Amino acid sequence: MSGQPAIVTVAGPGAGGQCRLAVGTCGYSYTEWADSGFYPPGTRTTAMMPVYARSFSVVELNYTWYQMARAEAIARMVEKAPPHLRFAAKLTRTMTHERDADWREQLQQF
């Protein structure tokens, strides 16, 4: 990786249309990535986000699929994140696949 976050401007349909494409992965704190060389050897999971953000501009929050995001947890992540890093949160599975009766209320909480 170049050390620059991956943001690409691409031509869109229509007259001179363009869009910005942010590239990232689903999650960032995988110890296996240290073994692959993405993270320096010995990088602790608590130190992975800044290293990840050198190469990517967005990260998908996979855990939000399994449980409702807590405001405190999101606030801690945002606090640790470099200013350019964006988060894409998955809706919780009870809203998208299980369709609980209160999914609209859950969406408001999300």
TrEMBL record:
<protein>
    <submittedName>
        <fullName>DUF72 domain-containing protein</fullName>
    </submittedName>
</protein>
<dbReference type="InterPro" id="IPR002763">
    <property type="entry name" value="DUF72"/>
</dbReference>
<dbReference type="Pfam" id="PF01904">
    <property type="entry name" value="DUF72"/>
</dbReference>
<dbReference type="InterPro" id="IPR036520">
    <property type="entry name" value="UPF0759_sf"/>
</dbReference>
